């Protein structure tokens, strides 16, 4: 099935953010959102009847801040947060906050690894070692042992591109996509999900259940339907779809 359908009325477009829409930056706060991307997303949202959503590890409030004034339906925090409607929709939280003592343990581990950046999301902690990649092996080792020592099976550790995230189990991008697809205007449509990282594989896994199209960015993943080389290619694709919305 082509990735450039003229009629998008049957489709829902679900997009990861970091590494998919946006180029990876040294820190989460340093990402750049091109104005042309905001314009493409705004125009494309109209073409798909509102069935355009962000599916991210970031909190939804962070997504709103990045893409302001654009506000989209979203799955945030790897499924911990959910907002099926762009306007007037409340953010529903699906996970409890991590224990403060455990968050402190993780912050102390990060402090022992020079250059590691702590991103405290409340319900999860992300430890970024993008600027100090040599810290990765020992950091993963220490975090894994901290999770075991905490004796809490409701906690899980995710690994991604130079990042470790510790979060409550039971929620992921796959569960978020399933819930999103049960709400209008997404319900009954064929999802096109675009993602780049290991945490996106949970979403890739559920796309076939809806007859959808799974698209990887950067690395080629077995079983994926389509592939983009970089976020630049993703942004160009979205721009083409939005232009088609004007001329078709």
In CATH, the architecture of the largest domain is: 3-Layer(aba) Sandwich
- Let me know the average pLDDT: 90
Quaternary: single chain
Tally of contiguous helical segments? 7
Residues in β-strands, percent: 15-25%
Instruction: Please state how the strands of the largest beta sheet are arranged side by side.
Output: 5-4-3-2-1-10-11-12
* Alpha carbon gyration radius: 18 Å
- Give the helix level as a range of percent: 25-40%
Q: Total domains, how many? A: 2
Largest sheet descriptor: 8 strands, mixed
The chain-level structural class is alpha/beta
| CATH homologous superfamily designation of the largest domain | HAD superfamily/HAD-like
What is the overall shape? globular
Q: What's the N-to-C terminus distance?
A: 19 Å
CATH class of the largest domain: Alpha Beta
Q: Fill in the CATH topology of the largest domain.
A: Rossmann fold
């Amino acid at each position: 099935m082509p990735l450039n359908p003229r009629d998008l009325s049957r489709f829902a477009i679900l997009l990861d953010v970091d590494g998919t829409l946006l180029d990876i930056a040294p820190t989460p706060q340093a990402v750049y959102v091109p104005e042309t991307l905001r314009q493409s997303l705004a125009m494309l949202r109209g073409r798909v009847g509102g069935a355009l959503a962000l599916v991210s590890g970031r909190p939804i409030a962070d997504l709103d801040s990045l893409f302001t004034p654009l506000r989209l339906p979203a799955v945030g925090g790897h499924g911990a947060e959910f907002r099926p409607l762009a306007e007037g929709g409340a953010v529903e939280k699906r996970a409890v906050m991590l224990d403060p003592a455990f968050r402190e343990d993780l912050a102390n581990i990060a402090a022992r690894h020079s250059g590691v950046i702590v991103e405290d999301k409340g319900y999860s902690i992300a430890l970024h070692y993008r600027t100090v990649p040599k810290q990765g092996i020992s950091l993963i080792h220490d975090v894994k042992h901290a999770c075991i020592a905490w004796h809490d099976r409701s906690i899980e550790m995710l690994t991604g591109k130079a990042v470790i995230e510790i979060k409550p189990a039971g929620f992921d991008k796959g569960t978020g996509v399933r819930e999103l697809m049960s709400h209008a205007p997404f319900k009954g449509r064929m999802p096109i999900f675009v993602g780049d990282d290991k945490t996106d594989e949970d979403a890739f896994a559920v796309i076939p259940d809806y007859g959808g199209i799974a698209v990887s960015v950067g690395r080629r993943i077995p079983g994926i339907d389509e592939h983009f080389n970089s976020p630049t290619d993703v942004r160009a694709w979205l721009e083409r779809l939005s232009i088609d919305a004007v001329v078709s």
